[in-house]
């Protein structure tokens, strides 16, 4: 009985300690928030929602926000990180909107361009400039390539935002493996070469020749089809089931299924296998550059995305754009002030160095206070810089079932690479399904 | 026959158990070792559990770039309050369900237990709307509020209470022991194992919860530890595995200490009366 | 008169004890549940201005979608595998530890419980590395033996097994200590007598230990089913996102995907409602069974 009593009191002690901590922390946090509102005074406080993890630009966002807040007289920015990339941000934005609120500035992935513009109200940057910053009327025209600005145009032709981070897929090479297999260290010139290279690597070194990224989207697979002259979408209808599309996918499927020279695993595992020297060539986003550079112990280089024989290379632009979702005039004005700051040459340079994304502004890569030194030190980013002229919009299927269409593309990829359906029939079914959805 | 004898013997089981223990422990050791590796080494030296060039830089990075002590405190407060409240509400509800007869008893109990099966995706948006209306967004109490009671707890504790003979309660009542007295001195000791085991589960689950806090918390000063881990996971730029592992180590150290500290107590409770 | 008053007073006390739970549940569980049923009759994404009432359209679409059946079968497969890994296996282990082995019990107990502290996000990340079929430590070891690992995350069937294994790495320890507590309550004398009589271990387990600790056993059994599917959600979302072609998806993940990846809120709500109905039915059957068994055990 005594024993039970003492245990009982022990538990009680714990409860009391817990309650104390509870109370103390309650004080602490209320103090904290009090101080917050006091220091911001009459500044307009706006929320900036972004998706950049600490290892991928998150720290740069912190820096930029801090710098901006220090120099702005009337605006204070609070940055909110959203995990799980653009998908995660969209989930949170959805909940926020359902609760009747919105942040002021959001970072939206290209695949969500149509869904976003159909379901959220945003301020066209042209309007924002006209309304709140009439003196810099030609800001967009002066600083951005027209094909880059077009990336953020909706299927209805409206400018939903301004491109912020741009990425394109490039081909990373493990030169040591190429050398060991007796292959040219300049890498393959065409996709047909890629297949040959991969086969040779497999035969000569027993290692895997090739890996193409397989995340929860089909961005890289779209690049492959585009580089054979196929169209993903034509006049608002899915159009990838063309001879070019089938041929392109067939080459990739053959590498995985017939030659067994290409790896078929999730993205993270594929990149890891490349970095520790088990795969000869890696086709993935330029955003992986710093991870690969820091991790690899072999001679690594990169080349721009190759075309098919006799075709022009084409790459879908990945990354994101910034859109103003603020609803009141004060918030919109503040959002534009901050957005303009982010697109300054210096901010752009900070941003690019931290992320490895390609800057959307024309002059940043060559400007002295821009990226000149960075490019010299990181030659791999050149592969992405030179192909910016070949960048086309990442297909964002129109309509409310656009996201379902993208999911169909993913399922199709799985079916083909899993050997459950032939390329021809899988693409045909997918195209039918997608066009059915849009009705 | 000798085979049979071997299987019945201790050596066989010890070998099997040791192998099993290694399998359970390996991922943990892998995590610890990688938290002391550089990025390059984590990629290139996968097999070795002992880092070639051990470095503290991952820990330095996370402690210098984030208000980690505040975040640990947030996590601790959240998990503690959630656990205590869940236990209390479950205990009281179980008591009512076991020792009282009232209108709607069966239906309510069934309804409560059925909520175990409501997938959390169903609750996310409606709960977000409520929390937002009350103005608890970006606040750990917004994370805590919907979690103050738990059908699993009610279920476990009720099942255990049902094994207590009703006559015991009747006798105490005749002895003029009040309701609170019965709750504290008679029912509590007999249900302690169930309470302890659900308490452990509540604490660990709340400690590691990330989907719901992700939605509610915005400022990093209000973050809980699993959100910090999310901050270092990037699919597009590649996750820095050693950094992620360093955060994981920080995240797991407190439940670990608590477990080791209370282990004797926990195991004693179990062996004293056991879950019936 | 007096008795009636007492009953009345008792009722009030009982309700007082239940009110805290009832309030929280109603607000944060039951109301969302009802709201979900309402959503399941709409074609809506929660935020769009057009809200279309479609009657049972979402349910019809579910039954017409071949993937629904695939996912149902997957869900069942997960349940069976998880029951083996997280209920049966720890049961056997706790028996061995309690009655066959005398030394090292505490050591094993600590080691086996340890992983249950860890979050499954971390667990999933760890296993993505450890089980990397080309360059992970396991692959390297197997390569030395001349065996190459399959691409498990893209192999139908195998992917469910591996994801279940990852989940049970976390869940095993907790279930194990709970079961151990139950098993250790079986009177020692009975088992020692049986061992002296040279009764084989498996017979002792199935004929003595299992029935005598069935209350705990059934509790773990139910929790494995209920929580198993929710736990599996994390590795699915971290590693496969339900792929390849829904081969690793289950009811819970799929309803998440519909609602928060594709924003087909109505469809997702219909699937959730179906899931709920299915489980409530199971629960109802289980209830009768459980109640009986527990009564039996405590007699």
Can you lay out the helices and strands and say which pair or pack?
The complex is a heterotrimer of chains A (439), B (276) and C (299).
Chain A: H1 2-40, E1 44-50, H2 54-71, E2 75-81, H3 85-98, E3 105-109, H4 113-119, H5 125-132, H6 139-143, H7 146-150, E4 162-167, E5 169-174, H8 175-180, H9 191-205, E6 208-212, H10 219-226, E7 233-234, E8 237-238, H11 243-257, H12 267-275, E9 279-285, H13 289-295, E10 300-304, E11 315-324, H14 329-342, H15 345-355, H16 372-377, H17 380-386, E12 391-393, H18 402-417, H19 423-437
Parallel strand pairs in A: 1-2, 1-3, 6-9, 11-12
Antiparallel strand pairs in A: 3-11, 4-11, 5-9, 5-10, 7-8
Chain B: H1 2-8, H2 10-35, H3 39-44, H4 57-65, H5 68-99, H6 105-114, H7 120-134, H8 140-144, H9 151-161, H10 166-174, H11 179-208, H12 211-216, H13 225-231, H14 241-273
Chain C: H1 2-39, E1 42-43, E2 52-53, H2 57-64, H3 66-100, H4 105-113, H5 120-130, H6 137-144, H7 158-183, H8 188-196, H9 201-212, H10 214-240, H11 251-260, H12 265-298
Antiparallel strand pairs in C: 1-2
Helix pairs in contact in C: 1-12, 2-12, 3-7, 3-10, 5-7, 5-10, 7-10, 8-9, 10-12, 11-12
Describe the 3D structure.
The complex is a heterotrimer of chains A (439), B (276) and C (299). Chain A has helices at residues 2-40, 54-71, 85-98, 113-119, 125-132, 139-143, 146-150, 175-180, 191-205, 219-226, 243-257, 267-275, 289-295, 329-342, 345-355, 372-377, 380-386, 402-417, 423-437, and strands at residues 44-50, 75-81, 105-109, 162-167, 169-174, 208-212, 233-234, 237-238, 279-285, 300-304, 315-324, 391-393. With 439 residues, chain A is an alpha/beta fold. Chain A is globular. Chain B is mostly helical and 276 residues long. Chain B has helices at residues 2-8, 10-35, 39-44, 57-65, 68-99, 105-114, 120-134, 140-144, 151-161, 166-174, 179-208, 211-216, 225-231, 241-273. Chain B is globular and about 70 Å long. Chain C has 12 helices and 2 strands, in the order αββααααααααααα. Chain C is 76% helix and 1% strand. The relative contact order of chain C is 0.12. Chain C is mostly helical. Chain C has helices at residues 2-39, 57-64, 66-100, 105-113, 120-130, 137-144, 158-183, 188-196, 201-212, 214-240, 251-260, 265-298, and strands spanning 42-43, 52-53. Chain C has a two-stranded antiparallel sheet. The radius of gyration of chain C is 24 Å and the shape is flat. In chain C, helix 10 runs antiparallel to helix 12 (265-298) and helix 11 (251-260) packs antiparallel against helix 12 (265-298).
């Amino acid at each position: 009985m005594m024993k039970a009593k003492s245990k009982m009191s022990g538990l009680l002690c714990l409860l009391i300690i817990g309650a104390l901590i509870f109370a103390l922390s309650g004080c602490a946090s209320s103090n904290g928030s009090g101080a917050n509102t006091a220091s911001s005074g009459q500044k307009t406080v706006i929320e900036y929602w972004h998706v950049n993890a600490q290892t991928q630009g998150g720290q740069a966002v912190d820096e930029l926000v801090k710098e901006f807040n220090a120099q702005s007289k009337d605006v204070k920015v609070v940055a909110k990180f959203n995990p799980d990339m653009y998908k995660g941000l969209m989930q949170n934005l959805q909940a926020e909107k359902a609760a009747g609120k919105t942040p002021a500035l959001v970072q939206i992935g290209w695949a969500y361009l149509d869904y976003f513009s159909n379901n959220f109200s945003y301020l066209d940057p042209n309007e924002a400039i006209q309304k709140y910053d009439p003196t810099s009327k030609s800001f967009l025209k002066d600083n951005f390539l027209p094909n880059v600005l077009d990336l953020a145009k909706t299927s209805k032709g409206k400018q939903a935002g301004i491109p912020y981070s741009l990425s394109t897929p490039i081909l990373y090479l493990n030169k040591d493996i190429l050398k060991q297999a007796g292959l040219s260290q300049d890498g393959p010139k065409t996709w047909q070469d890629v297949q040959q290279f991969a086969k040779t690597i497999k035969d000569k070194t027993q290692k895997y020749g090739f890996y193409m990224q397989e995340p929860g989207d089909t961005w890289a697979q779209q690049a492959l089809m585009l580089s054979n002259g196929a169209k993903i979408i034509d006049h608002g209808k899915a159009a990838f089931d063309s001879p070019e599309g089938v041929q392109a996918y067939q080459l990739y499927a053959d590498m995985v299924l017939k030659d067994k020279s290409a790896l078929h695993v999730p993205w993270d595992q594929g990149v890891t296998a490349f970095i520790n020297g088990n795969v000869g060539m890696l086709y993935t986003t330029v955003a992986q550059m710093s991870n690969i550079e820091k991790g690899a112990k072999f001679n690594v280089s990169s080349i721009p995305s190759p075309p098919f024989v006799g075709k022009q290379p084409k790459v879908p632009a990945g990354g994101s754009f910034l859109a103003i979702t603020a609803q009141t005039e004060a918030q919109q004005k503040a959002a534009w002030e901050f957005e303009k700051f982010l697109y300054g040459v210096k901010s752009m340079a900070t941003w690019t160095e931290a992320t490895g994304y390609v800057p959307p502004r024309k002059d940043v890569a060559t400007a002295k206070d821009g990226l000149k030194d960075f490019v010299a030190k990181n030659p791999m980013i050149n592969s992405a810089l030179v192909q910016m002229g070949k960048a086309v919009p990442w297909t964002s299927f129109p309509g409310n079932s656009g996201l379902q269409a993208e999911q169909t593309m993913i399922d199709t990829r799985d079916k083909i690479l899993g050997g459950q359906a032939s390329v021809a029939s899988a693409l045909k079914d997918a195209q039918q399904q997608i066009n059915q959805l849009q009705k | 026959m000798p085979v049979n004898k071997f299987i019945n013997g201790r050596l066989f089981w010890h070998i099997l158990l040791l192998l099993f223990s290694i399998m359970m422990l390996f991922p943990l050791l892998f995590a610890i070792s990688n938290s002391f590796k550089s990025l390059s080494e984590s990629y290139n030296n996968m097999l070795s559990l002992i880092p070639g060039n051990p470095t503290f830089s991952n820990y330095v990075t996370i402690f210098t770039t984030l208000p980690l002590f505040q975040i640990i405190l947030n996590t601790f407060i959240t998990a503690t309050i959630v656990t205590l409240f869940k236990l209390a509400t479950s205990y009281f509800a179980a008591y009512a369900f076991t020792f009282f007869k009232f209108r709607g008893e069966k239906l309510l109990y069934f309804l409560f237990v059925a909520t175990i099966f409501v997938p959390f995706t169903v609750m996310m948006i409606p709960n977000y709307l409520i929390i937002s209306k009350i103005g608890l967004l970006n606040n750990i109490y917004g994370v805590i509020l919907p979690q103050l009671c738990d059908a699993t707890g009610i279920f476990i504790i009720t099942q255990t209470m049902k094994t207590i003979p009703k006559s015991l309660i009747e006798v105490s009542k005749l002895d003029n022991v009040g309701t609170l007295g019965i709750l504290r001195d008679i029912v509590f000791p007999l249900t302690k194992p169930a309470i302890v085991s659900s308490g452990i589960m509540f604490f660990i689950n709340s400690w590691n919860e990330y989907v719901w806090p992700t939605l509610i918390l915005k400022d990093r000063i209000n973050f809980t530890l699993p959100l910090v881990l999310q901050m270092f996971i990037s699919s597009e730029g590649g996750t820095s595995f050693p950094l992620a592992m360093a955060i994981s180590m920080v995240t797991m150290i407190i439940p670990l200490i608590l477990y080791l500290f209370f282990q004797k107590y926990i195991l004693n409770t179990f062996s004293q009366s056991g879950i019936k | 008169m007096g008795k009636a008053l007492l009953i009345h007073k008792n009722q009030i006390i009982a309700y007082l004890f239940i009110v805290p739970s009832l309030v929280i549940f109603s607000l944060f569980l039951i109301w969302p549940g009802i709201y979900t049923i309402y959503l399941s009759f709409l074609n809506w994404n929660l935020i769009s201005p057009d809200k279309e009432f479609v009657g049972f359209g979402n349910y019809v679409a579910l039954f017409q979608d071949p993937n629904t059946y695939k996912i149902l079968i997957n869900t069942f497969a997960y349940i069976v595998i998880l029951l083996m890994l997280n209920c049966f296996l720890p049961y056997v282990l706790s028996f061995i530890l309690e009655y066959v082995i005398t030394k090292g019990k505490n050591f094993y107990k600590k080691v086996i419980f340890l992983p249950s502290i860890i979050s499954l996000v971390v667990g999933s990340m760890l296993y993505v590395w450890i089980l990397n079929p080309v360059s992970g430590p396991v692959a390297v070891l197997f390569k030395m033996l001349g065996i190459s690992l399959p691409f498990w995350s893209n192999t139908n069937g195998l992917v469910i097994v591996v994801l279940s294994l990852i989940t049970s790495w976390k869940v095993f320890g907790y279930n194990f200590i709970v079961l151990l507590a139950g098993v250790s309550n079986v009177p020692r004398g009975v088992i020692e007598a049986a061992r002296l009589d040279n009764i084989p271990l498996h017979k002792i387990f199935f004929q003595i230990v299992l029935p005598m600790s069935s209350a705990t056993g059934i509790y773990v059994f139910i929790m494995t089913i209920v929580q198993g599917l929710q736990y599996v959600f994390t590795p699915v979302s971290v590693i496969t996102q339900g792929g390849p072609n829904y081969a690793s998806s289950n009811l819970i993940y799929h309803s998440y995907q519909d609602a928060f990846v594709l924003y087909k809120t109505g469809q997702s709500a219909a699937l959730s409602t179906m899931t709920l109905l299915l489980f409530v039915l199971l629960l109802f059957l289980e209830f009768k069974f459980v109640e009986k068994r527990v009564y039996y055990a405590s007699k």
